[in-house]
Design a protein that fits this description.
alpha+beta; Sulfite Oxidase, Chain A, domain 2; Pectate Lyase C-like; 2 domains; 6-stranded mixed β-sheet; 11 strands; elongated; binds ligand MTE; binds molybdenum atom
Length: 322
């Protein structure tokens, strides 16, 4: 059977409801789906217009991050690629796609555009031959095959093409993994952390004292983060904004900070052994007393800030040999 790790089947005939229960309240305007952003032609589709476009019917497996799966649900809808083609296709700079719901909190999720197209995202109207129930996203929802179901937005209102990623609701607020591949169990950005703890840590930008080894925070805005004494071995901060972050006494060994903005960040007395800072901005960063054995920097990002001479020498030696 096709069950990803640590999933189990929902009871036969049962389809659990997860997240929001209904679209935006008190909005009686006609349902439309707008395609906008980095697309050749912005277009607004009415429901009838959508229903009359060429459609496909395909079985897809649903895998919810809360560990239930429902296999072989037959969805009918328009392939994302076909809808984008009707808008003249994505512009060259379009690298990400965001699906946004007609819901009170404007719920959204995002995908790498090329992956969304490869996976065969569907703008779906029916499930197992019947129109989608409102509670399951009717009249129109996204179905993203091959990802946890939080990548499948209910009550689709907008499709926006973006050059930079914009984290979705669950991904940004409570630390659901941004890639969401169920076969690789990409559920949460930190696999070994209680989700509630993670949610609180993200909301308050306070990682102080927590064990978040391997946490995946690529590209996030973490300005002013308090990570005093945090255990962040193997963490991913590529491209993140860490301006004014405090990593005093943190363990960042083998962490990835490539292209991160570490302006004025404090790494005092931290363990940075094996950490990678290539392309990072380290203007006015403080690495005093940090252990830098095997830490790598690119020439443009070598710390000018207070660092013990021997350690700079070590970093430069690594740079020369690497
Ligand atoms: N608009 C909207 N779409 C959403 C959600 C939500 O809260 N709001 N939750 C997501 C999550 S976490 C899951 S698992 C699926 C659940 O879809 P279902 O209720 O039809 O099972 O919808 C996804 N799409
Ligand atoms: Mo979910």
């Amino acid at each position: 059977m096709n069950l990803p790790p640590n999933q189990r089947l929902a009871a036969p005939g049962k389809w659990p409801v997860v997240g929001e229960k209904a679209p935006r309240e008190g909005d009686s305007s006609p349902w439309t789906v707008t395609v906008h952003g980095l697309v050749t032609e912005r277009r607004v589709f009415g429901l009838d217009e959508l229903f009359n476009l060429p459609q496909v019917t395909q079985p897809h497996d649903i895998h919810c991050v809360t560990r239930w799966s429902k296999l072989g649900v037959t969805f009918t809808g328009i392939l994302l690629a076909d809808l984008l083609a009707l808008c003249g296709g994505p512009l060259h700079d379009a690298k990400f796609i965001s699906f946004i719901a007609r819901s009170d909190r404007e719920h959204s999720t995002s995908l790498v555009l090329s992956e969304a197209l490869e996976l065969g995202c569907l703008i779906a109207f029916t499930a197992d031959g019947a129109p989608l129930d409102e509670i399951h996203g009717g009249p129109v929802r996204i179905v993203t095959p091959g990802r946890y179901f939080y990548k499948s937005v209910k009550w689709l209102e907008r499709i926006e093409l973006l050059s930079e990623d914009r984290l979705g609701y669950w991904e940004g607020e409570i630390g659901y993994h941004n890639t969401a591949d169920p076969w690789r169990e990409e559920r949460y950005i930190a696999a070994n952390t209680n989700p509630k703890v993670l949610e609180r840590a993200l909301a308050s930008r306070n990682f102080s004292g927590l064990d978040l080894r391997g946490v995946d925070l690529r590209g996030r805005d973490l300005t002013g983060l308090n990570a005093f004494g945090a255990r962040l071995r193997d963490a991913h901060f590529e491209g993140a904004n860490l301006t004014d972050a405090d990593f005093t006494r943190a363990n960042l060994s083998n962490a990835h900070l490539e292209n991160a903005n570490c302006t004025r960040a404090i790494f005092t007395d931290g363990d940075l052994e094996g950490a990678a800072f290539e392309g990072a901005t380290l203007t006015d960063a403080d690495l005093t007393g940090a252990s830098l054995f095997g830490t790598t920097f690119s020439p443009g990002s070598l710390p000018q800030a207070p660092v013990r001479a021997g350690q700079v020498f070590q970093a430069q030696a690594d740079l020369a040999s690497g």
